[in-house]
Amino acid sequence: MVQLVNHGVNLRLLEKVKAELEELFKLPMEEKKKLWQCPGNVEGFGQAFVVSEGQKLDWCDLFNMLTHPLHLRNPRLFPNLPLPLRDIMELYTSELNKLSTAILEKIVEAIGMKTEEMKELVGEGRQTIRVNYYPPCHLSDQVLGLTPHSDATLITILLQLNDVHGLQVRKDGNWVPVKPLPNAFILNVGDILEIITNGTYRSIEHRATVDPKKERLSFATFIGVGAGGEIGPAPSLVSKQKPAMFRRVKVEEYYKGMFSRKLQGKSYLDYMKIEQD
Length: 277
Prior knowledge:
This protein is 27% helix and 23% strand.
């Protein structure tokens, strides 16, 4: 993970995003129900990666939504966002699309990958957002806000919404806290980027803890690949000296397998690996 300071996103916009998303979770229940998850769909208020009734849930409420491309937006959700949040999110997600494009261009340049390959693998792309609300818990040492995992994305851009910290990354077997710099984004490499770069960029396992007395809010923007294509190592990054480390699968197969599993470490990325002789 790295922290982005000179990211080019207007700081006044960031402050508006923070203020409005804090209010989102204060909506009356009758208003929240208009934005609730439907069966079989993770968009809206609710939970994610729930695969069994007896599963132990994270100490976290979520709001998920696909935001780009526009033609794939859920018509039940975005239009029902309260104003001015709806207009602010329109501007913010557009700015994050520009930022993520610039980041991927720098990555391609840094590793000598062909630009056409990245464009083909990403396709029309996907941008989804997730607002995480972690209520205080007096048994905070016995629960987790978010189970240890790596993101199944190209990259994730995280914005801390208040001054309560809880993000931790696994380093050398230990959990290390991450404290965001003022007005900075936290940039995280996802599993798909590790696959495409054939292991050059490594996704980071992370988790979220909760505070015993204060609520915590964070806002993740996930940048992924479009449907219809395949996920696999870029051909220009595969050679006799460095053979393909991961299998090539259709995008639909990749996401179907991911959402059918409980969130747990880097287990799905491990499943995608090719056993080397």
